[in-house]
């Protein structure tokens, strides 16, 4: 089996950032919580490989810990979407046209009416800004996404002959959904999960940029960009490094998502055969 180039390239980029994030748990070139005002705005050097910010903090260390923050927020937020959204989508598909289906789908429409940024502002107004609240905001927005994808994929399978045979054999809707429907839509969920993960990275950076995400002293790529905007002319590298990190991470995840779709979608395989 030939692996799509986009899958390989995306996986390499994504794994690189995951390794860097895991490495930050045990080692960083410098302590990100230590301020060294005497070394502020230092250019790249053997001591500070990517230079320092206006507080004298090592930029590389901040990027490493920031990767950990962004990935953790995105993973948990996507997990919330999967854990809640997939069962809702399966239930809606199993009861197509019923009141249950209408309630679930109209609830999804209601959530879609409010962008994740607006939801984050609402949550922050009540509970205050934090990484946890950013996770909740992004996770809530992911729920209807996975519910719609699950329902759409499941509806096409409910019409197949082997599902009718399972119903004749006495299997209930719940058992059919778990044993027959869910395994056959896993490829859709995997691809969608990869896409939502990249969107979660962007959403976390956006929320941190406006001060609604991870709070100091926890590093975040979005807040690094926000802090660097006032020094864009004097020290443009402070905005360049976190910007490049966000672009590379999102690009890698999107490439991996496209590659997984090409690999797992039988229609694409038939077209290329």
TrEMBL record:
Ranges where the ABC transmembrane type-1 domain occurs: 67-257
Ranges annotated as spanning the membrane: 62-90, 110-128, 134-164, 185-212, 239-260
InterPro entries assigned to the protein according to its UniProt record, in alphabetical order: BP-dependent_transpt_permease (IPR050366), MetI-like (IPR000515), MetI-like_sf (IPR035906)
GO terms under cellular component: plasma membrane
Major location category of this protein: membrane
Domain of life assignment: Bacteria
Places the protein is found: Cell membrane
GO biological process, one term: transmembrane transport
Membrane topology according to the record: Multi-pass membrane protein
Keywords for the protein's UniProt record, in alphabetical order: Cell membrane, Membrane, Transmembrane, Transmembrane helix, Transport
Similarity field: Belongs to the binding-protein-dependent transport system permease family.
Database matches in PANTHER family: OLIGOPEPTIDE TRANSPORT SYSTEM PERMEASE PROTEIN APPC, PEPTIDE ABC TRANSPORTER PERMEASE PROTEIN
Protein name as annotated: ABC transporter permease subunit
Record organism: Maritimibacter harenae
Lineage per the UniProt record: Bacteria, Pseudomonadati, Pseudomonadota, Alphaproteobacteria, Rhodobacterales
